[in-house]
Predict the structure.
Amino acid sequence: MKFKYSIAASAVMLALVAAAAPVSAAAEGLGVLTNDYVNSREHLDQKEPAFATILLSGDKLKKDEEGVLSIQTSGNFYETAHALKDAYINNKDKGILALIKSLRDPITGPGNSVNLTMFAGGTNFLDGKTNSVLSFAKIAVNLFGKLPELKDPINKLSNSFTSVPKDKIVGDIKLTIGSEQSEPLLFLTTAGDNVFNLGLSLSEPKEGDSNIVNVERTGDITLTALSGNIFGLTGGSLAANVNAIDSVSTDIKVPFLFKGTIYSIPGETTATVDGNVLINLSGHSNALAVTTGGTAVAFGGKADSVITGDTNLLINTKADPKNNVSGFVLGVTGGGTALAAFGGNATSAVNGDSVINIDGSSVVFLTGGGLALTTKAPDFIVNKMEGDHTLSGHNISIELKDKNQLGNATATAGNVQIGIDSALTFAVAGGGSAIAYKPFGSEGDSNVTSTVKSTNIVLGKDVSNETLSGEEKTKLVSLIKTTTHHIYDTVKDKGLTGAVSAFLERENFDKIVGDLKQFQQFNNLSAFTLGGGLSVAFERDGSGTDQVKVKSEVEGNSSITVNKGYNFGLVGGGVALASGYGSNPIAIANIRGSSTITINGGENIGVIGGGAAAFAGSNEKFDGIASQANVGSSVIQVTGGSVDGLLGGGLALDLSGEGTNVQTNAKDVSIIAAGKDITFSYLNWTALDQQPSQMPEGPGLKGTLGQFINVASNLLDNAAKEKVAIIGGGASIGANGETAGAFVDKVTLQLGSGVKVTGAPGKTSDTADVFIGGLASNGGYSSVGSADVTIDGAELNGNLYMGGISIGENSRTSIGDVSVKLLSGSLNGEFFTSGKTIKGGTASVGNLNLKIGSNFKFTKENSVIDASQLAKADVTFVGDREDNGLKFIDFDTVTADTSTVSNIKVVNTEGRSTTFNSGTFTLAVNDEGDRGNYVVGTERTPAFVSIPELKSEMASVSVKVVNGALGITNAHEAKEHHDFVNNSKPTFYISSEDHGTIYSDIVVGNVDEANTVKLMAVAAADAPSIGTVKVGSNGQVIVNVDPSVTTVAKANWEMHPDAQLRFVKAENGSKVNLGTDVSEIQQNFTSDNQLLELKKLDEDHTHIFTLKPKSEEDQKALGIDDPDVGHFYANLPADSALKARVDSDRKINMANLKAGMNLAAAAGVQTAATDASLIALDVSSKRASLARDYTNGTEAFAEVTGITQTMGGNSSMNKIRTNLGGIAFGADHSINDWTFGALANLGAGKVKGRGDNSGVKNDVDYYGLEAYVAKRFAERFNLVGQASYTYSKNDLSDSSVGYTKANGVHAHAFSIGARAETSFALSSACRVVPYIGVNYLRVNAKGYTTSNGTKVGSTHQNMVNMPIGVAFTGKKTFENGWMVKPNIDVAYVPTFGDHNVRATTIEGSDIGSVKMDVWTKNVGRAKIGVETGKGAWRAGAFVGFAAGQNKAKEAFGQVSLRYSF
């Protein structure tokens, strides 16, 4: 999210301009308070005495024309602080009245200072009953002379308040504080109204009496501070309900008026601002304890302060070199403040949203929501107030009620938005703060709650990676050390009270001021930013059963967006702190929705996605959860910048005794990083020269803080020492037992492109580690339910742990099932399936599901992924990959689907095995002592695995093949031959390569020991080189018998009688050494060429076999009816693709074998060329026939022909189906008895194999030309001559066995012929035309080479056909000029010559030939048609049928059109 000031903030700025306008020109004019003006008391009503600087009401002061009241007084903070200190020290042992009196003058302003105290921008209201008591007091001191010491303050106090109005107050309040000429000093300032309800009464209250006060103001409140120091500011109104005094008794009595006792009536006080509050702290002002909303104080009774609209706070204060210190704001709440004690109930509510924008300022302790606080009244105040006092000779006794009670406080706010830019901030919380302190002597339960709807914090307007330089960081650390040591040492030596006094000494004061000013030079620096709120429950008295419950909650989502800067301590959730001694305080920080941290830039140190919770208590067992920080889900998204130390879940610190007393919870943690130049590293923590042992521990606040600091320091030191960059889960640090729990349901980690995890800057070889689980230390427990990890483009320079890190005894981390996808990127370190344990901790991991992509690199050679400590681990490879010896230990399954993986090691410990589910794997040589126990394939999916030469028996393997193949040295060949042969049989494949010795125990398929045949080696010299091989009934062994070597396949064979021993790469003369005489099961031998048989080399070598062609008789028994074909296939080279056609698993198919030798003939190349030539001949025969009507002149014609033809299916001809379609077009000219003509013939079609010839295809295109001439004799006789040429182009393919193709195979057909006809008239309209012809055809098919390398020579045919037939034709002419002419033609066509072709086929060194029929000898043909036309146009249509030898069948159709010129 981009940083932008809200509309409300813009409104603030406009209001500020309007408010500040009169100040710049102001002196002591209308609406301006200056020192002189105040001292002259001209701002007061001179008729009534009142305080000049205390309890002033803005409504009683004059404003400028725009209704703005400008405060331009000047006060000296240092002089005031010194005066207050001296007054306190000199009077702290005196009574309460003396102490108050001594503090009045310093508060008013010592010397030339004019300090405003409890100023109200609106009005100071006091409840009516207490006003009545004040009125009586005035009578008593003025008329009766009682208590003369109180005369002046009672008169002034009485005149400082206004009675509570009955109606709403309508009107805006506009205040401006300070200018370039003034430095106002204000204490406890309220921009709205102060509403006080003491409920004092001169009459004893009756049961059920109550004193209810309600003040409502309609309008907006705007306050602008340009300079000065403001201590305690409320932007809305103050509702103060004080019912702590039970009674005040005195010996003073006034007859009929006062009986000597003042009582307190229970009260309820409400102060409402029906509008918005806008505060601008700018210029060179300082502010302490700023409440943007209203303040509710309930010292007994009930107090409510409400803002119905929004609150807007703009902090734009700047350092001023002229002043001692300026530009600091300490303690800010964006909502309201609720303070309760004496059993009171305080509520402060902001019904609208709270917007805070900080620009260039220094802000410490900011709460985006409200502050809810309760405690017991301090004993030193209670003791001074309660009891007997003497004043002016009179006895006064004060009795307090509920003095040991705490109270209940609630603060609520709407949506919170905080924008910070170019500022220095420390401790910023997006939510509200809820705090309870229960000291010794406290009584009663207490509930403190601060709630907001949602939070949104933005650090930096614009995205930038600029951060502090190395020199600036050194200076900052030095400054922190100097300042913290100075403060710490002073407090340690002198105590808190003494330290305050010491700090006010000029030298110390100037030093602290100087240090603070140095901090202001650092812009864009933030420390400890919380997305949620703060919850603190501190209990000192655990003697009773009373309980303190404190909760800070974000009802919706929280978000932190970091765009730039140097940011330390980003916490997505809230923080809960609790301290208790024997009782059960509860501190809870909740985010019901999601907490999101988005990092776009900057340098970020220590990022926590969840919340943080801590508890310090006694060593006694404490039952229940004392401190808890929860988020619905935690999201950390990084698009830029750097992160040093990232914790996805929450942080839990438990410093109590036994039992789990602290919890952090997150349903889901998502860490997503992708972008440009993103760096993750470890938290390079260096303690500020402060060893943990130096921090105090024990009871009390100081001891508790010491414990927290010590534990946090140890945590940071350990994280730095172990170089922890990312922790996916939460972190838990305990004390003496398992006392802290950090829980995450699921972790999602996604590191994409542009991300680099590395060591400290400047250390090129330094590394940093990533832990998917959590961290546990000193007895803590961190749990993650499950995890999903994706690395896609990131570079990891360090180790990757699936689990967490556990440090110290009794520390424990656990994580459930982990799914990891390593898609792309790199890991320059080890991949640990477990967590990391140090000094006795435990780190458990559930199951692992690992996916590795082809583009992910393990850059470290011989990396190991050890899953031996897991119950189950699976790995899946996505895409092909070649590793560098990556070792997998005790993975249950390895899967690669259709991918190929090579050079990995798979190792199993005792009792564990690995199943290769699918894919192709070439394993690397295992290390010495590593053993493998493999299962290849599952019942549903095959896998293909090869094992290499093993160095010794200490690196043996045991393999069971269930589905797929196990290969010796070559998994690719194993897969190839398994798939080609029989993909349902478990297979053991032995390569022809020299595989050395394989120490193995191999089981192939289902092995039944009772039915196996053990085949022993025949000589010691032929000891097994493969080990023991057991082959079950459904198993097969495939041996590569490449003829270039004698394949060694020596093993202790135990084979089921039904098992198969198969030889591939078989070639005439191949040899194999089985190390055993396998004659007993020779009937089960098969090979990839069933025309070969296995024979012993000789009687002296019964374990060595050679492959020889079977006899013609044996081949004929297999179905080989052509010895030439048998000889060719028996002598095929070892790697010939044609061998698949004679594989042992296939039945001999002669058509298929012939197609392998001459694909062109099998695909009808010659047949289609002949058909195309005859189409042209048929057209020219009709054009020159006596069945046609002739007239002198020229006719143009076109005829479309389509034929479908089947032929073959016997032993001499492969069955094909031919579909051709084309057009013949041309013209002829007739003159007298002569006709001369020419035509073009072109078309296309397909030829497909049928039956045993299935799988063969031919895509045909043909083109032809023909010329013809006819001579008629007296219309009775006719002689016709023709000559033609036809060319065809054929794209061939064969998918019957494997796949092969040959594109662009050419054929040429030449034809010349003659025909004689005669005509007989059956009637005037009908004729019969007998005819006889003779045609010579020459068909040449060019040689070609198939895609599999088979070379086929050219073929040549010479054929003569003699069509003998008769045509019947008739003619009917109608009166309208239309003509109809039917026609029937029947013929017998014998063909002589080359009906078949013989082609020479070359396959490697193998040469053979095959003869195949491509045409039929005798055909009978008939066709019928009709022609019609009128004038010069004629159109006709014919259909016909033909049948002949070689199972020839044909159907054809013709459509013609002609025109006579």
In short: Residues 1-28, 686-702, 1016-1021 have pLDDT under 50 and may be disordered. The radius of gyration is 52 Å.
